[in-house]
Amino acid sequence: MSDETTTLADLRELVRRFVAERDWEQFHAPKNLSMSLAIEAAELMEHFQWIDMAESRRAGEDPARLAAIREEIADVLCYALALANALNLDLSEAIRDKMVKNAAKYPPEQSRGRFDPPPR
User: Fold this and answer.
1) Where are the domains of the chain?
2) Which pLDDT value is given to residue 116?
């Protein structure tokens, strides 16, 4: 199944079942999940530490490097989904709401091609 055919609900259910089958709900307090999410994000960052932006863009050209990055991204997403499950958050709604805020905060006419945030 691909991103084009898998829903966010499908992925949340996959993570929920995995956790339930192992009786890990007892350990999946939001505190623990948020810490695990940060740890996995740091592990993802390690793949890009000490390299410049151009080299980071070429990471996908090395199959072994890409496979390792792919696993770390999956870990990050799994913990994010587990946290959403633990807090019963609607992620689609959360992302849509956040993008509305981002659109107001970073209007295209002030933000296009800028590295720094637009002046307020």
Assistant:
1) 8-111
2) 77
CB 106 within 8 A of CB 77: no
DSSP-derived secondary structure for 82-115: HHHHHHT--HHHHHHHHHHHHHHHS-HHHHTT-S
Which are the contacts of 11, defined by CB distance < 8 A and separation ≥ 6?
Answer: 77, 81
The whole-number pLDDT of residue 96 equals 98
- What residue has token string 């990471």? 59
For the chain (120 residues), the mean pLDDT of every run of 10, in chain order, is 95 98 98 98 98 96 97 98 98 98 93 75
CATH number assigned to the domain with residue range 8-111, chosen from the 4 options 2.60.40.2970, 3.40.50.410, 1.10.287.110, 1.10.287.1080:
1.10.287.1080
